[in-house]
DNA sequence: TTGTGCGATCTTACGTCGTATGATTACCTT
DNA sequence: AAGGTAATCATACGACGTAAGATCGCACAA
């Protein structure tokens, strides 16, 4: 056994950081007790002194990511004016955190209960909205609407991750033109103004657009 | 070995139906090769004659659920007038399918590529929208917005599934009133018009409200 | 009738996972 | 030096996905 002077002592924090690193680098399925142990140069069973179970560890992962969101959105930008600008900025920051940890939305949504840190985000959001004249009822709905966007919008609906591979042959394209004309039009460049808006799927722009719709709608519902 | 006359022959369809049944009844983690075999009265390895791997089986699960959505939304209601009513109805139907299979959104979002059946839904949606005067660009955005709602809104953000257990003691409530006053107000009945809008979290109403915001926004963007 | 071929199913086995149990270590206190 | 305690490890078990090959049952040819 390597003496403690040579090796950092274990801790819940160090375990969670290592697990996040594994998930970021190799996907959530690589987060394994034995692999975490390997990364921390200890045996898998040693982790159980700091973590109750694999489930608790996964909950810790979610907590870690949501903590990042809290840290990123704690201080509002100096020049921000109005609730819309504030909330928009926070949602974009939250999304950027999720994009850094693509496994996070799935993990968060798989939990039976929201991690405690989450309430800090909600508190801040409700405060901002109520100050801007929202009813509590409407603020509650805003939480749902915005939360499901940040967690649900990360994944692409089309395209296998990156649009590098031309997954469709000419024949398939021809067949598609007949059976699904609208999707074919959507996928074909130069058929409707901009270039094929299906192949060039700018998810960030889609996100901001949809978020804008929601914020506009909430603003109208405020009255 | 039980002769074939006594026992239905295996098939990909039967395997997928059994797997969906397991997932509905016991959660997605109960969907196991051995358990499916048990349900179909065969050995786990026999499934591989019809299913390439566990991953392919999971993709098949997603396909099955999305197929349910297609079936439910194939025929529009007779009295429906206008794209908004049509799309609203389809989204509600899609959501009702997801609520029957709470594991489905996670499974669908975990896939590297959308199942082929999905395109039928998109084709129908884009057709309806383009007919109503949407540009293809805007229709594309509508797909993203509505899709992420149907898949992302199913899970509760608060509350451990059902609100039966009073998870908070009086002390915790007191502490919360000080550190998170807005959430406390949100959770407290009779403090703001309606009764506590956090404890009585009518997710269906939240969903319909948010969906309404999106549809209104899309309608405005149409011009 | 007796092969014979083949599609469908089963048996066995391997490596990996989470984790229960109990031993073992390193270090502090006296 | 002795003993106690917190931290770490070694071993083991059952469940998982699945590779490789054996085995079954039946249709058809001789």
Query: What's the name of the CATH homologous superfamily of the largest domain in chain A?
Result: Tetracycline Repressor, domain 2
Assembly type of the shown chains?
A: homodimer
Q: Report the largest inter-chain contact.
A: A-B, 62 and 62 residues
| Class of secondary structure makeup of chain A | mainly alpha
Radius of gyration of chain A: 22 Å
As residue ranges, the low-confidence spans of chain A are 1-5, 160-165
| CATH top level class name of the largest domain in chain A | Mainly Alpha
Helical residue percent of chain A? 55-70%
Tally of DSSP helical segments of chain A? 10
Number of strands of chain A: 0
CATH topology of the largest domain in chain A, by name, is Tetracycline Repressor, domain 2
Beta-strand content of chain A:
under 5%
Please state the average pLDDT score of chain A.
88
What is the N-to-C order of secondary-structure elements of chain A (H for helix, E for strand)? HHHHHHHHHH
Number of spatially distinct domains of chain A: 3
The CATH architecture assignment of the largest domain in chain A turns out to be Orthogonal Bundle
Main β-sheet of chain A: number of strands, strand sense, barrel status? none
Through-space gap between termini of chain A: 67 Å
The coarse overall form of chain A would be flat
Explained architecture:
With 223 residues, chain A is an all-alpha fold. Chain A folds into 3 domains: 51 residues, Orthogonal Bundle (Arc Repressor Mutant, subunit A); 102 residues, Tetracycline Repressor, domain 2, CATH 1.10.357; 42 residues, no CATH class. The longest helix of chain A has 20 residues. Chain A starts with 11 loop residues before the first helix and ends with a helix. The structure holds a DNA duplex (30 and 30 nucleotides).
């Amino acid at each position: 056994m390597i003496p403690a002077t040579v090796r950092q002592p274990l801790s819940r924090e160090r375990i969670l950081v290592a697990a996040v690193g594994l998930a970021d680098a190799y996907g959530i399925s690589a987060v394994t007790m034995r692999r975490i142990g390997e990364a921390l140069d200890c045996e898998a069973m040693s982790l159980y002194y700091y973590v109750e179970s694999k489930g608790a560890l996964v909950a810790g992962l979610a907590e870690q990511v949501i903590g990042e969101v809290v840290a990123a959105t704690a201080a509002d930008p100096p020049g921000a004016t109005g609730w819309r600008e504030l909330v928009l900025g926070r949602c974009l920051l939250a999304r950027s955190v999720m994009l850094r940890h693509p496994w996070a939305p799935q993990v968060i949504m798989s939990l039976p209960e929201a991690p405690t840190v989450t309430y800090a985000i909600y508190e801040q959001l409700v405060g901002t909205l109520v100050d801007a004249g929202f009813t509590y009822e409407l603020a509650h709905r805003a939480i749902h609407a915005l939360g499901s966007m940040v967690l649900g919008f990360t994944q692409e609906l089309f395209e296998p991750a990156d649009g590098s591979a031309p997954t469709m042959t000419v024949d398939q394209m021809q067949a598609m033109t007949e059976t699904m004309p609208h999707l074919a039009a959507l996928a074909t460049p130069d058929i409707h103004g901009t270039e094929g808006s299906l192949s060039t799927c700018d998810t960030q722009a889609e996100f901001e657009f949809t978020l804008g719709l929601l914020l506009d709608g909430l603003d109208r519902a405020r009255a």
